[in-house]
Amino acid sequence: MAMHQWVEYTEATAEVRAVYDDIMATRKTDWINNFWKVLANDPVTLRRTWESIKQIMAPGALDPLIKEMIYIAVSVTNQCPYCVASHTASARNKGMTDAMFHELMAVIGMANETNRLASGYQVEIDEQFKQ
User: Fold this and answer.
1) Number of C-beta neighbours around residue 76 at 10 A
2) What does R_g of the chain's alpha carbons equal in angstroms?
3) CB 20, CB 9: distance < 8 Å
4) Cα 93 to the chain's mean position, in Å?
5) Cβ atoms of residues 12 and 18 within 8 Å
6) Which residues does 83 contact at the CB level (< 8 Å), separation at least 6?
7) Measuring CA to CA, how many Å separate 1 from each of 6, 44, 68, 105, 121?
């Protein structure tokens, strides 16, 4: 059960509707997902988060699919089921195949395991890896 009410478009203030409209236009969709509907309870946070994610996830030096796959990796590691689901859907829309997803999960699992081992053993960083 959600801890906060969703702010539906029909009940949204003009400020929230403006962000919703930008989300739908940018994403070329006709609906707003639950993450944004919950953030709309705080319009300042809604706008700030949307502007940041729009900027960060836009095409740049990294391909949009790679960005989505990184987002999945961090979301899996942080154990955020909502973000895993939404960014997996987005990555699939950008061309991620089942084989890519399975390989990504293997990399995430291995990275988390070796990170914990290196941290637990307090492995000193090799000179060749230092910049």
Assistant:
1) 19
2) 18
3) yes
4) 14
5) no
6) 71, 72, 75
7) 12, 24, 27, 28, 40
Residue positions counted in the chain: 131
pLDDT tens for 84-124 read: 999 999 999 999 999 999 999 999 999 999 999 999 999 99
Q: Which amino acid is at 79?
A: Q
Beta-carbon count within 10 A of 91 CB: 23
Determine the 3-state secondary structure of 8 from DSSP. Answer: coil
pTM of the model: 0.91
> Residue 50 corresponds to which tokens in the numbers above?
């949307």
Residue position matching structure tokens 């796959």: 69
Give whole-number Cα distances, 44 to 39, 52, 53, 54, 92, in Å.
9, 12, 14, 15, 30
